[in-house]
Amino acid sequence: MLNATDLLGADGPLARHLPGFAPRRQQQEMAARIEAVLAEGGVLVCEAGTGTGKTLAYLVPALRSGRRVIVSTATRTLQDQLHQRDIPLVRKALASPLRHAMLKGRANYLCRYRLQLAAQAGHDRTPHYADHYCRIRAWAARTESGDVEELGGVPADSPVWSQVTSTTDNCLGQDCPEFSACHLMKARRAAQEADLVVINHHLLFSDMMLREGGFGELLPGADAFIIDEAHQLPEIASRFFGCAVSAHQLLELGRDAVKAAQEAGDMPGLPEQVLALEEAVVALRRALGAPGRRLPWQAVRDEAPVRERLEEAQSRLRVLGETLEQVAERDKALDHCWQRSRRLAERLAPFAAEPDDGRITWLETTRRGFVLHDTPLEIAATFQTCMERYRSSWVFTSATLAVGDRFDHFTARLGIEEAETERWESPFDYASHALLYLPPGLPEPGAREYTAAVVRASLPVLQASGGRAFLLFTSHRALREAAALLRDHDLSYPLLVQGEAPRSELLADFRRLGNAVLLGTSSFWEGVDVRGEALSCVVVDKLPFAPPDDPVFQARAEALRRAGSNPFRECQLPHAVITLKQGVGRLIRDVDDRGVLMLCDPRLLSRSYGRVFLGNLPSMPHSRRLADVEAFFGNLSAPARGGAGLL
Hints:
Elements: H1 4-7, H2 13-17, H3 25-40, E1 43-48, H4 54-64, E2 69-73, H5 76-94, E3 100-102, H6 112-121, H7 129-140, H8 159-164, H9 183-193, E4 196-200, H10 201-212, E5 224-227, H11 233-240, E6 243-246, H12 247-264, H13 270-287, E7 294-296, H14 304-327, H15 332-348, E8 359-365, E9 370-376, H16 380-390, E10 393-398, H17 408-414, E11 420-424, H18 430-433, E12 434-437, H19 450-465, E13 469-472, H20 476-488, E14 495-497, H21 503-513, E15 517-520, E16 537-540, H22 551-562, H23 567-584, E17 595-599, H24 603-606, H25 610-615, E18 622-623, H26 626-632
Parallel strand pairs: 1-10, 1-11, 2-4, 2-5, 3-4, 5-10, 12-17, 12-18, 13-15, 13-16, 14-15, 16-17
Antiparallel strand pairs: 6-9, 7-8, 8-9
Helix pairs in contact: 3-4, 4-5, 10-11, 12-13, 12-15, 13-14, 14-15, 19-20, 22-23
């Protein structure tokens, strides 16, 4: 029987069946390590540089292992790609009889019961509400999976989606009149019968939380877990092991309670109680201040308006809950609303209590709403306990997990004490195909004119590259300022700006146009794959340190200081290095790609930690001369590498 190395070799079935397949040493070595872990047990943490082919490196041993394997991704994009393209191709090449399935969180599936409720609610919420609802209704009649990704023409941020999908709070479970036709339950049954199941990290942690609380499970039992895009795991874990309560959840509870009461019969007083709750939530939102705030709860908890409005919201929620408790036996929907009121009251409680040293309570505000978060500062012990509960083999992989050759930052956050580690460099020829440009003369990033200076330094680079560029920013404010400056300059190339169209539409336009300049923030730093000449330049405005006013990072840093550690070296620097590696990874996506990476932050050369960032980038020539950039793109007669050298 062929092993994983042979299957991925020049004479293996993958080479015969997959167009464009070429054996890669790194891929074969990675597959062999994963094959051993699946067979013998244990934990493997590995970084596979761009172009390694890590997807095949884990799918081949997973499909040949004879074990039930769950693959988890951070993004739905990769999840869909695995299920719809990669796994079918590998199964066919290997002639594998194993069954595979994809399972997403409940918000990704149409809820037929809530679709009916939305029809009763009317179509007057937004100008596009009626059109979006009609499209969804027509699609609902023909879809088999109910996966909302199937339907084009309705934006992901359409308010209709929240009306026709369910949440843990509002799902009626087996009491739902549409339970037998439930798309989510069908997907879960398919997952139970499959040998290989593709999920996402959010669903993984939902299952962990259910098992920890003794409330059952969402996922089938598995012999092994393969966690792709694992660099996102610690932050997702922090959110799931904490809790949050939002204005939307409170208002939605009120709306659902009124609907349930109308169906159950006349209930005097309940609509007035719901109205009182809604008014209290709106008043609390006003008391929390301007939109766009992210700050520790302690910064506002002693302000009289905030304290009073919070107490009022808790009081109104308690009164509504007491009424719902009295009538819960009359109707299943009323009973579910009562249970939701209890859970929401529990989530609000920490914001009226004394601070817990092991957690951070914080808030964020939007134009019309707010979210109050209660986040643990450490997740290591909880995650380690959850891993042990599964009694499975574990593989954690990503293109960006290590700082240097060390994985301590990742393993310590998750409490992984015993693990094999390995790192494979990208097989791409960065030395011949890429140039790192560090523009001279830029001010310190804190200067008011910094973004303007970045734009000025970028203009001749964009001219040399013929557009074909990503400009990646660390803040929305800098992105908006740069977009305005580039428009004032009358840029010669199409300008695409995050926030002015859906992400998928911007990427499609970027690929189609061939010479566009795209401005993006965090969502474009990773998970974006543009191959070929359409993307030939990546500009990064600043080193991606977490914002100094980020409440969770502030609290973690303070906890590390109290423990006698250096928060910059142990937390902030590793996080920024891994984020930068993600952004840099957008440039060279295929063996024939060529491009210039422009890092604008002068701290790369003026601060000692700059060496850490530079040492974690692929090995390529560095230059501070614009002439070398122009030569690279062939605009001058000088050789493409003329004058370029390592700094």
